[in-house]
């Protein structure tokens, strides 16, 4: 082909794509926001009917699941700030009163510090800031005090588990996400109750992970909290590392902490240099249709894969539902070019089977892990990108994903995870983050901007909005 022919073809493609984009029907945001709100109530009604007073609903067997020997009211605490944002005033008031009367942390149970922090401390603090109900703040402070023993390791890196009554800890091998995803919650608690110990302990944990990055600036997957030695040197942005990077950026923005700013700047350079992968699909896939519609492209796509933290050797070309948080983080950091490209890749992953798998190989486009546990990350990124660009593309993306979500995951009494996005077989699980994150981000994508002033809050990794300044 001559250069002139190629140029003409590109012009035709541009004109066609522009006219197609302009011809797209407008998204009815108020209608969609109302639909999301209705689906929240559908799932919440199912939870109240079959699992009230327990952590989670099991939507297929219509029973309940508790994380530990005694319930910690995961779903009510996780769902409360979403109810408030949706204007469900009576439901929120009833739930708040129930939490006050029935939630106690004086329990002889061993809990996972990270999950309890992001869901319960994060949820209680967010709802306190939205309501001013000091009973919620008192609960958060009591829980924070009971979690503090996790930080008493030789390195300051937190143990993974702690008994809420005795303070006994265990789990001396942790990961960057669990060690470094605590400062938004503990730092906010510190500010609200004026106890520096919460901020100091959580920040030290974040710093200690950063200090142990490799000479090329990457962190591994697992680390011993007593020796500070890495036990797994695989580096990536997926589960076990993901929110460590998120919190470096967000803690700088939330607390104006220049140490976090510096650590973020150093880290993102390494991530973009060694983990980003502008990958072409395998040649035999080019031009082939995939199940969700469309064709494999011939141009490089942006993905983030795995590499050894020391050598930068590529160890895996996998990307999944958890990784799809990263476009939101890139957008928040001002890197809209990478954010847009990566969101396109994430949506391509979603479109393969009409809903995203937990993990796929982006070189072969083969599903590696087929489950879908109702994850919110790709919706979160659509919300951030729409906020920053106002491009209706992200509304249409959200509309498609919400329709797919309802089509494949809705049950008579709630929403169910999928065992496989290929077969669409459901699993008997409805985790609390459905309310805290997935339905919240769908709602905020379509709701009026005044529902929540984006620039005035920072979302923790469980989507609980925490007030800035």
Number of helices: 16
How many beta-strand runs?
20
Strand content: 5-15%
- How far do the termini sit from each other? 58 Å
Please give the radius of gyration in angstroms: 22 Å
User: Which class of secondary structure composition applies to the elements?
Assistant: alpha+beta
State the helicity in percent bands: 40-55%
Q: For the report, how would you describe the main beta sheet? A: 3 strands, antiparallel
Strand order of the largest sheet: 3-4-5
Mean pLDDT: 93
Shape: globular
**Which regions are unreliable across 5 or more consecutive residues at pLDDT < 50?**
3-22, 291-296
Short account of what is shown:
With 469 residues, the chain is of the alpha+beta class. It has helices at 3-22, 29-51, 74-85, 89-102, 113-131, 134-147, 176-180, 183-193, 196-211, 242-255, 258-274, 326-332, 336-353, 377-389, 392-409, 433-446, and strands at residues 56-58, 63-65, 110-112, 161-163, 169-170, 173-174, 222-224, 230-232, 234-235, 276-279, 301-304, 306-308, 314-316, 318-320, 359-361, 366-369, 410-411, 414-415, 457-459, 465-467.
Structural features:
469 residues, alpha+beta, 3-stranded antiparallel beta sheet, 20 strands, 50% helix, globular
Q: What's the SSE blueprint?
A:
Blueprint: H1 3-22, H2 29-51, E1 56-58, E2 63-65, H3 74-85, H4 89-102, E3 110-112, H5 113-131, H6 134-147, E4 161-163, E5 169-170, E6 173-174, H7 176-180, H8 183-193, H9 196-211, E7 222-224, E8 230-232, E9 234-235, H10 242-255, H11 258-274, E10 276-279, E11 301-304, E12 306-308, E13 314-316, E14 318-320, H12 326-332, H13 336-353, E15 359-361, E16 366-369, H14 377-389, H15 392-409, E17 410-411, E18 414-415, H16 433-446, E19 457-459, E20 465-467
Antiparallel strand pairs: 1-2, 3-4, 4-5, 6-7, 7-8, 9-12, 10-11, 12-13, 14-15, 15-16, 17-18, 19-20
């Amino acid at each position: 082909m001559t250069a002139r022919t190629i140029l003409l073809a590109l012009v035709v493609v541009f004109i066609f794509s522009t006219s197609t984009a302009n011809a797209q029907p407008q998204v009815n945001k108020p209608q969609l926001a109302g639909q999301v709100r209705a689906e929240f109530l559908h799932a919440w009604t199912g939870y109240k009917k079959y699992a009230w007073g327990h952590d989670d609903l099991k939507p297929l067997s219509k029973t309940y699941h508790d994380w530990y020997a005694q319930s910690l009211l995961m779903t009510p605490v996780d769902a409360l700030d979403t109810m408030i944002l949706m204007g469900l005033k009576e439901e929120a008031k009833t739930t708040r009163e129930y939490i006050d009367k029935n939630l106690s942390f004086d329990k002889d149970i061993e809990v996972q510090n990270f999950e309890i922090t992001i869901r319960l401390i994060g949820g209680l603090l967010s709802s306190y800031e939205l309501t001013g109900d000091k009973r919620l703040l008192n609960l958060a402070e009591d829980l924070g005090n009971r979690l503090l023993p996790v930080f008493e390791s030789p390195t300051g890196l937190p143990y993974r588990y702690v008994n809420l009554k005795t303070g006994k800890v265990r789990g001396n091998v942790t990961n960057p996400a669990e060690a470094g995803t605590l400062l938004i919650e503990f730092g906010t608690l510190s500010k609200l109750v004026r106890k520096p110990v919460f901020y100091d302990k959580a920040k030290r944990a974040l710093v200690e992970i950063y200090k142990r990055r490799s000479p090329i600036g990457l962190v591994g997957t697992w680390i011993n909290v007593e020796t500070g030695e890495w036990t797994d040197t695989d580096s990536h942005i997926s589960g076990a590392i993901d929110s460590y990077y998120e919190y470096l950026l967000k803690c700088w923005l939330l607390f104006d902490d220049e140490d976090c700013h510096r650590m973020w700047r150093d880290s993102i350079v390494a991530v973009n240099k060694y983990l980003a992968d502008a990958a072409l699909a395998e040649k035999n896939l080019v031009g082939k249709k995939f199940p969700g519609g469309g064709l494999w492209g011939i141009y490089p796509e942006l993905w983030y894969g795995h590499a050894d933290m020391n050598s930068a050797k590529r160890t895996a070309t996998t990307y999944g539902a958890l990784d799809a948080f990263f476009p939101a983080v890139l957008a928040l950091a001002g890197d809209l070019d990478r954010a847009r490209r990566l969101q396109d890749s994430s949506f391509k992953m979603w479109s393969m089977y009409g809903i995203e798998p937990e993990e796929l190989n982006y070189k072969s486009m083969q599903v590696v892990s087929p489950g879908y546990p109702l994850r919110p990350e790709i919706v979160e990124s659509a919300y951030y990108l729409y906020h920053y660009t106002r491009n209706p593309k992200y509304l249409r993306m959200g509309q498609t994903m919400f329709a797919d979500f309802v089509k494949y995951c809705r049950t008579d009494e709630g929403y169910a995870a999928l065992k496989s996005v290929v077969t669409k077989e459901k699993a008997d699980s409805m985790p609390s983050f459905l309310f805290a994150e997935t339905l919240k981000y769908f709602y905020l994508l379509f709701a009026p901007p005044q529902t929540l002033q984006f620039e005035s809050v920072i979302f923790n990794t469980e989507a609980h909005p925490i007030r800035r300044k």
